[in-house]
């Protein structure tokens, strides 16, 4: 994979985290070591994206429930 393709995979893994999981699963069964590395990185990016989205959701819930209860 060239740098542009890797960038596209990483970008979509961050925006839509299930794509990172799908890329990791497909790379898990592939024999190409470079593709396995891309899949592993996509999984890490997807996990970070999921954590950030959950954190933003929790903070959003806390902020809005505290404002409306006062």
UniProtKB/TrEMBL annotation:
The chain crosses the membrane at residues 7-29, 41-64. It comes from Brevibacillus brevis (strain 47 / JCM 6285 / NBRC 100599). This is Group-specific protein. Keywords: Membrane, Transmembrane, Transmembrane helix. It comes from the Bacteria. The keyword Transmembrane helix applies.
């Amino acid at each position: 994979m060239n740098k542009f393709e890797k960038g596209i995979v990483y970008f979509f893994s961050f925006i839509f985290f299930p794509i990172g999981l799908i890329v990791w699963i497909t790379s898990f069964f592939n024999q190409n070591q470079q593709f396995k590395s891309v899949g592993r990185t996509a999984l890490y990016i997807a996990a970070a994206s999921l954590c950030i989205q959950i954190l933003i959701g929790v903070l959003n819930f806390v902020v809005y429930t505290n404002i409306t209860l006062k």
